[in-house]
Each structure stands twice: as C-alpha cells, then as structure tokens.
Specification:
With about 550 residues, the chain is an alpha/beta fold. It has helices at about 1-10, 10-15, 35-40, 45, 90-100, 120-125, 185-205, 245-260, 275-280, 305-320, 335-340, 345-360, 390, 435-440, 445-460, 460-465, and strands at about 20, 60, 105-110, 140, 160-165, 170, 205-210, 265-270, 290-295, 325-330, 365-370, 465-470, 475-485, 490-495, 500-505, 515-520, 530, 530-535, 540-545. Bound molecules: 6-O-alpha-D-glucopyranosyl-D-fructose (ISL) and calcium ion.
C-alpha cells in the first residue's frame, strides 16, 4: 500500500536533485570553443543513464540559451522564443528535451524578464520615440534638475538610470545599461511575457528558474532608497523601493495560474535577501505562488556547523507548511564552494561533508555543474576577465568568470571540453580533477556525489521525511533525523578535523539501532551503532534506523 501511495505522491521537483548547467561551459560539440546544446546531449548519460554509474540527477536548469548580444552572457535576452546560434537551434533544443525526457531528466529554462536586452525589438520600439506605443513597456522618466529621478543604483555599478539622448529621458536598468527593466505595471507587458512562456510550456519544458524574482514591480512613486553603510555605492542603500513590492507577488500568482494549466510544471525563484521570511514570502501560502525559492544563505556561511545549523533552522521555520525548502551551495554568480571551504589536504573531505548536507537535508538540492568533481574557483588574469561587473567597474572585484570555466571531462587538451581554445581558460588542475580520473577512484568526490544521490533516490525518508535536529547548539557536528512514514534516517556530519562522538543516549529517538548505509569511510558501511556514533575526522555517516 505504501509503495502505491508513494508513486501517486511523487513530485519530481520535490523528490529529485536539480543540476544547473551554464551552457557556454559544459561541453562544446562543434569546436568553436563555446559550449552548446549538442554538447549537453552528448553528456546526458553522464547525468543520468538510469544506473548508479551516472550522477543520477532528475532535472537540468539551463542558464539562458535565448538569442542575446551577450553583454551579460545571455541574461540580456533579445528574443524570448528562439535559441542563440552559438548554442544551436530550436531543433537542437527539441532533441535535447526529447533525449532528456527519455532518461527521466526534466528541463528547466531560465526566465529573465525583469529586463530585456537593449536590442530586444520591444526596447528598440520603446526608445524610438516618446509616443511609441511601447514607450510605457519600459520605465522612462524626465531628468530632475539635470539628474536621474532617484538614487537607485545598478547592481553592476553606476546609477540605475541611463540618459537617452534621442528622446531626452532616462530609462531604468537594475543591471547593465544594455539590460533595460520592463515596466511590470503595464498589463501589456505581462500579456506579452506570458505569451512567450506559453511558447516553451507548449514545447514541453518542465519549469522555469526566475531571474531576480523579487524585482519585477518597482515603487510607483520611484522614491529614494534609504541610506546604509556599505563599500560599493550599490551596498550603501537598503533596496526597499525596487525589490519585494506587493505587485511582484501579484505577477507570480498570475504566473502560477498559467503554469497550473499544464501538468507537473514547476518554478523556482531567485531571491537574494538576508531575511528568510522575505525570501519565503515568494511561496505565497505554499500553493499559490512559486513552487520553490532559492535560499542563498549557505553562501554566506563560513566553515561552521553552527552557522549552517542556524540557516537550516531559520529556513525550516520560514517556509510555509505547504511549501518545500531548497538548498544550494554554488551557482554562476558566486565563487565555487569547493574553494570557499578549501583547507589544503582536507579540501576534498570538506567538499564531501558539504555535499552530504546539501543532499540529505529536507529540501530540493540544486547542484552547479562541476561541483560534483570538486571543481575549484579558477583564477582569471585581469586581461582575460569577460564578466561585465568584473571588467567594467570596481578595481578589486574579479567578476564571476572564475566559477564559469569549462567543465573538466578528462585529461586531454582543453579538459575534453572542446577541440579548440575555450572561451574561458580551463582550471589548471584539470589533469587530476576531471570526470574520467574520478570515475576510476572509488573515494573521489564524484563517486561520493553519485552514492549520495542514488541513496537519496532509494530512500523515501531522505526524499521527503521530516527534518529534526538532534544537537541544538552544534559546535563541530550536525546530527539530524529525516523521519518518513516507515523509514528513519540519522545523518551525522563531522565538520571538524578531529574525531568526534555523538552520544545518542540522551536523545529522543524512535529506534535504538542504526545501520550505516553510507559513509565517507566506506569500510564503516554496514556496521551497526547503538548508544553512540563514533565519527572520524570530517566523517559523513548516514544511518538507517532498524
Ligand atoms: O551576482 C550577484 C551576486 O554575486 C548578484 O548581484 C546577481 O547579479 C543578482 O542576484 C541577479 O542575478 C541574476 O540576474 C543578473 C545576472 O547577471 C545573474 O547572472 C543572474 O543570476 C542579471 O540578469
Ligand atoms: Ca560550440
């Protein structure tokens, strides 16, 4: 009975693991040095061939593949219903979708609709004259005393307003001047964007990752942001006027209704905010807004069990009961977590602890391509920097290229990514850190990810059981239960380079005997613990109650 029940209940975006691909950097099939859709198709079996020899992910989130002048590498879209030639064609996309679906892999697109490219026909028309029918599709304002209408700053540096000489007004851009913000207060904008969304839903895509989901609607009166202390001009204000406006929730609620016209579709919103309650507000009541929302607060945690614990507890409390948490350690906007947590010879051990936490918590884990082989942040020399914020603005900021380098497949030239010079340099460690070498090593980071993901897949408690922390004020060890209907899992993670003992005797536990089902010390697997769990340095120990 339970099994039948489970199949009915299974929801792919809640039970599964989602893998982010930065398409320029995953695999280059046509030899121009830039990753493409065919390259992804060639590696689908690596991602999931239905056996534990593959990674076993359930869905791919593709960073943008739409036509774009690439000022922000695709986050500046000039056509929402096509594929940029650098990545391939719509036919390639359809093949990717079909081949992925054959393997049980879903495809999530990146939906970038806070802004378009300045080359999008909507903006070209909007800027053509003050009485263009699309003038109001973007946010245009007169100068005030020869200056922009308010103090808002662009996230990539400089004011958020750019003067348009021809029509004598400023337009608003949250990011680059080449990324003008759409005016979401205009109902025609919503209609036009929803039309584009239908294009992909009708093609069969399974969901959307929503770029800067908390920014769409801006303060109607365009009031100044209040001042706060910070290093960069952007950080010297609280972003209360251009973020988290009530109207933004209205847009996503309408979008949810559109998604719900199609079966099994999902959404995940990008919301950077310090307060988990604000982030969680994008779930609505858990059924009427976004399916999932990213919580990026792990990215701010140093290597500290206590700090991770706090983020988890706060998030568990913030997500509404009908909602579902998410966890993520790396993406295309931040330094890779392998390097954030690196500690010399202990770096791999730490990467395994981090991976086990990500994949055994209650919530959907998002992986970033390459983290499963322990790819490092790559140092990009100043004259090779391509990412706009790294190249254009602050002299100390290196940009985001270092986490976007080519996937390291093997030890052949260009790491097996391309037959010609890649668009960004390959990590200098690619001869040791790559898929081929790690596949052959049972103790590699890659094989550890595979084991974790396949264990999760076979465990209803890990997929959707409750979360309960067993150590209230952790110092070195996180210990928590994942309790399902007829399975209970105990996870112990030793963040410290010294052995630790978890004393189970005082704890309120449903069972007394624990069998190790996965450990970073493979020899420990199969053994039983009662009363205490002994952990070696940086040990990950996942146990099933008997
Ligand atoms: O990069 C950041 C932190 O490292 C953020 O400021 C980020 O730019 C912001 O959260 C929005 O990110 C998203 O939209 C941008 C795009 O450049 C990012 O790659 C994308 O993830 C503009 O579309
Ligand atoms: Ca290519």
């Amino acid at each position: 009975m339970h099994n039948a029940q489970r199949n009915v209940d299974s929801i792919w975006w809640r039970d599964g693991v989602i893998y982010q691909i930065y398409p320029r950097s995953f695999a280059d099939a046509n030899g121009d040095g830039i990753g493409d859709l065919r390259g992804i198709i060639h590696h689908l079996d690596y991602l999931n061939d239905g056996t534990p020899n593959s990674l076993g992910i359930d869905a791919i989130w593709l960073s943008p593949i739409y036509p774009s002048p690439m000022h922000d590498f695709g986050y500046d879209v000039s056509n929402y219903h096509d594929v940029d030639p650098v990545f391939g064609t719509l036919a390639d996309f359809d093949e990717l979708l079909a081949q992925a679906h054959q393997r049980g892999i879903r495809i999530i697109m990146d939906l970038v609709v806070n802004h378009t490219s300045h080359e999008h026909p909507w903006f070209v028309e909007s800027r053509s004259s003050r009485d263009s029918p699309k003038r109001d599709w973007y946010i245009w304002r007169d100068a005030v005393n020869g200056r922009p209408p308010n103090n808002w700053q662009a996230a990539f540096g400089g004011p958020a307003w750019t003067w348009d000489e021809a029509t004598g007004q400023y337009y608003l851009h949250s990011f680059l001047p080449q990324q003008p913000d759409l005016n979401w207060r205009n109902p025609q904008v919503k209609e036009a964007v929803f039309q584009e969304i239908r294009f992909w839903l009708d093609r069969g895509v399974d969901g959307f990752r929503l770029d800067v989901a908390n920014r769409l609607v801006k303060d109607e009166q365009l009031r100044d942001n209040p001042f706060r202390l910070g290093l960069r001009a952007y950080d010297r204000q609280y972003h209360i006027r251009e973020e988290n406006q009530p109207g933004t929730h209205e847009v996503w609620k309408a979008f949810r209704k559109l998604l719900d016209e199609y079966p099994q579709r999902m959404s995940v919103g990008e919301v950077y905010h310090d307060d988990p309650a604000v982030t969680a507000s994008y779930y609505g009541d858990g059924t009427d807004e976004l399916h999932l929302v990213f919580n990026f607060l792990f990215a701010r945690c140093p290597w500290s069990a206590r700090r991770f614990h706090k983020v988890i507890e706060d998030w568990e409390r913030a997500v509404p009961p009908a909602g579902w948490p998410t966890y993520v350690l790396s993406n295309h906007d931040m330094p890779r977590h392998y390097s954030r947590y690196a500690a010399g010879a202990d770096s791999d051990a730490r990467a395994k602890v981090a991976a086990a936490m990500l994949i055994t918590l209650r919530g959907t884990p998002f992986l970033y391509y390459g983290e499963e082989i322990g790819m490092r942040e790559v140092h990009i020399p100043r004259d090779e920097i391509l990412d706009p914020p790294g190249k254009r603005y602050w002299p100390f900021y290196r940009g985001r290229d270092g986490c976007r380098t080519p996937m390291q497949w093997d030890d052949s030239p260009n790491a097996g990514f391309s037959t010609s010079k890649p668009w960004l340099r390959v990590g200098p460690d690619y001869r040791q850190v790559n898929v081929a070498v790690e596949s052959a090593d049972p103790d590699s980071v890659l094989n550890f990810y595979r084991r974790l993901i396949w264990l999760r897949k076979s465990s209803p408690a890990l997929q959707r059981g409750n979360y309960r922390a067993l150590i209230e004020r952790p110092t070195d060890v996180l210990a928590y239960l994942r309790e399902g209907e007829d399975q209970v899992i105990l996870v112990c993670l030793n963040f410290s380079p010294r052995p630790r003992v978890v004393d189970l005797s005082g704890m309120d536990l449903p069972v007394g005997a624990w069998r190790v089902v996965l450990s970073s010390e493979r020899a420990a697997e199969g053994s039983m613990y009662r009363g205490k769990v002994g952990l070696s340095r940086y040990e990950v120990c996942v146990m099933e109650g008997e």
